[in-house]
């Protein structure tokens, strides 16, 4: 049985708590948060505390806190030589205090507090400073059903960056689609099956092969029609830049 | 029984043929294409022709051809006063020759020739010049299980434009995610569950509510880290522009 203490009460902490608490091979023995009220919903299931000096001894301490809090929290932990990991995509593993055995468990997924997440669909990228810590972190991730991948710092950082492109930026394109359609009283809902299909297609086909549309075909007539419809200068700039990017990728236009 | 002639042999024509051929209330009585070879796989199921003068009488003629071919093909049809529709998102319904009853059946979906499409997931936007043609087109769309929506020209055009944002441009962001990860030997496959989850989230939550990440939080530290990692100037420009767009939407930064 792997014993775990979770520090933090945000989305990642909450989802990890539920998954690790349900798993057979792991036991969450304590949850810590500076504001103990945020842990109130757990208090019947696990010991909770807001005092670092009350932290129990465990196999793994998971710091699921905001990026800026990781370094100082790791310094304040009143013990050393135990395995302490953070869950951030962009913070260095060396930001953790060197008195600990250090690692990262980076879950590559978007979490909503309300929606239950099946960890089968949450790849966990594992990084460790010393090799010996790796098997235990892998066992933890496997225990909740996650696919795992050992990564180095550079790989974790580009995965985090790529996640911004495929999640945050993609979501902003959905938002622009929403604004454009509503402006003419058309229904954004009509686009939802297309949005889902575009994401499903990529599960089997490379994004290169999946591309279609006026930019790829270099269909200037349609591109000009679209630029005329767009009233918002920022939307226009995004249209032009992504059209050029597609044409660059597919060689339909020299840059 | 609604009788249909399909003109064209591309993705949309192929998928419409299969769906209409399977539907109980519709009968595809003929397929036309300039290059008859492209219709060879249908010839055991339906009459095929490459001669406009051999076209049979039908309730609806569907011109599922490239945007540029619609106007001239509609002129060349050797009959008048019959219902002729095209399937394009961006071509005017008035590009069809005025000797016909004119309409548009615009399927709002991305089709791949290999992948079977369930028309339950293909909203069909219907536009007609005269009101009387509408019920028949609606009946046709309903017969293959599609959700339908009556739209005007402006609405159809913004839906097509929005489709470029949520499908083609989104796919290019997936492509950039692919390039960035591969450049460090990280696996693009790790991003696939995130891509799917981002699209699923939008089925129930507005894109505005679904947004997360460094741009929305105005997390300058992470944004600067990401800009440092990006080597490609075009990727950098896309990162900056979409970050600004998110900040504009969420009021985290004044423009």
TrEMBL record, chains A, B:
Residues 4-86 form the Pyrroline-5-carboxylate reductase catalytic N-terminal domain. InterPro entries: 6-PGluconate_DH-like_C_sf (IPR008927), DUF2520 (IPR018931), NAD(P)-bd_dom_sf (IPR036291), P5C_Rdtase_cat_N (IPR028939), TM1727-like_C_sf (IPR037108). Residues 122-245 form the DUF2520 domain. PANTHER family: CONSERVED HYPOTHETICAL ALANINE AND LEUCINE RICH PROTEIN (PTHR40459). This is DUF2520 domain-containing protein. It comes from Flaviramulus multivorans.
């Amino acid at each position: 049985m792997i014993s775990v203490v979770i520090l933090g009460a945000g989305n990642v902490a909450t989802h990890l708590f539920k998954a690790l608490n349900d798993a057979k091979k792991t036991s969450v023995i304590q949850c810590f948060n500076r504001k103990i009220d945020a842990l109130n919903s757990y208090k019947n299931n696990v010991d909770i505390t807001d005092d670092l000096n009350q932290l129990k001894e465990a196999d793994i301490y998971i710091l699921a806190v905001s990026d800026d809090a990781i370094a100082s929290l790791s310094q304040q932990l009143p013990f050393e030589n135990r395995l302490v990991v953070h869950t951030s995509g962009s913070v260095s593993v060396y930001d953790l205090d060197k008195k600990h055995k250090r690692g990262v468990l980076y879950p590559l997924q978007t979490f909503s507090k309300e929606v239950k997440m099946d960890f089968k669909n949450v790849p966990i990228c594992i990084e460790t400073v010393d090799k010996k810590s790796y098997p235990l972190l892998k066992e933890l991730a496997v225990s909740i059903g996650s696919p795992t991948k050992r990564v180095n710092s550079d790989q974790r950082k580009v995965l985090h960056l790529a996640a911004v492109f495929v999640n945050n930026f993609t979501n902003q394109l959905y938002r622009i689609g929403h604004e454009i359609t509503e402006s003419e009283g058309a229904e954004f809902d009509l686009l939802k099956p297309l949005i889902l299909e575009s994401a499903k297609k990529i599960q089997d086909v490379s994004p290169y092969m999946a591309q279609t549309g006026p930019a790829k075909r270099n269909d200037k007539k349609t591109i000009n029609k679209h630029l005329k419809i767009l009233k918002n200068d920022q939307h226009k700039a995004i249209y032009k830049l992504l059209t050029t990017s597609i044409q660059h990728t597919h060689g339909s236009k020299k840059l």
